[in-house]
Design goal:
8 strands, sequence-specific DNA binding, Homeodomain-like_sf, transcription regulation, RmlC-like_jellyroll, alpha+beta, disordered N terminus, DNA-binding transcription factor activity
Length: 264
């Protein structure tokens, strides 16, 4: 089955029958909100990708893959020089995979299956189908490891998260935010758990990690990034970053600078 190549920044819908798409995108490149009848897996062999849906934003460095089921509106933004691999899954192959957008860890076999599917210019249909079946099997067995930043619907909670988006490094307490937006600390605490499924401190940490991924992709040092994102010292930042992403900030930056694995 022939490979279909397109500029990553201009993919509003899949061409009929396109099995996959590959391309390189500069940091800051965006794909506007759109949806597909098929499911899509997006993997960055280098760089990082943010995917935004109505449920919030996911970010996937090179050890994660994003999954968007058929019919979900989504948008993407690339961070760093990004080697993007998109594998298209027909709707009939999506039943075993999550029904909502998600991010999964990429182990060695899953990575090689994605690269094999997207590197080959010509692949016999039966070979392609077997490789894709291996990919689906690996995804079914892979635990979700989501760098998901959910966004609220309640106006009071949205006011708080917008203030944090403006300055993730601020040390404002939830009680202080409550006074600013006209809501009690207990009310906001309940709203964080009910709407976002996590505490105020965990949501703020996830926001800071998202921002740190962007700063590192832009070439800022680990020390400068830790300060800009609100950590008191680089050691505590490295620990939090490694816990949530599965790799150190230095290894993440090294992956962003990885040599090209496909032609432009």
């Amino acid at each position: 089955m022939p490979q279909t190549r397109h500029s990553v920044a201009s993919v509003p819908t899949y061409p009929a029958g396109a099995p996959h798409i590959t391309g390189r995108a500069r940091g800051g490149s965006r794909i506007g909100a759109h949806r597909h009848a098929e499911g899509q897996l997006v993997y960055c062999a280098s760089g990082a990708l943010a995917a935004t849906t109505a449920y919030g934003t996911w970010i996937a460095p090179a050890n994660r893959v994003t999954w968007t089921p058929p019919g979900f509106q989504h948008a993407h933004r690339c961070h760093g020089d990004t080697d993007v691999r998109i594998v298209v899954l027909p709707a009939e192959l999506c039943a075993r995979l999550p029904r909502r957008p998600s991010v999964c860890a990429v182990g060695p076999l899953l990575r090689e299956a994605i690269l094999a599917l997207t590197d080959r210019h010509e692949t016999r249909p039966e070979v392609y189908a077997r490789l894709r079946a291996v990919l689906v099997d690996e995804l079914v067995e892979t635990a979700e490891q989501s760098l998901h930043l959910p966004e609220p619907r309640d106006d009071r909670l949205r006011a708080v998260t917008e203030l944090l988006h403006q300055d993730p490094a601020q040390m404002t307490t939830l009680a202080e935010f409550g006074r600013a937006v006209g809501a009690g600390e207990r009310t906001l605490t309940r709203l964080f758990h009910r709407e976002l499924g996590m505490s105020f401190l965990k949501w703020r940490t996830m926001l800071r990690i998202h921002r740190a991924l962007v700063h590192l992709a832009d070439g800022r040092s680990v020390t400068d990034t830790s300060i800009a994102c609100g950590w008191s010292n680089p050691t505590s930042f490295i620990e939090a970053f490694t816990t949530l992403t599965g790799q150190t900030p230095g290894r993440y930056q090294a992956g962003l600078r990885a040599p090209r694995t496909t032609p432009d």
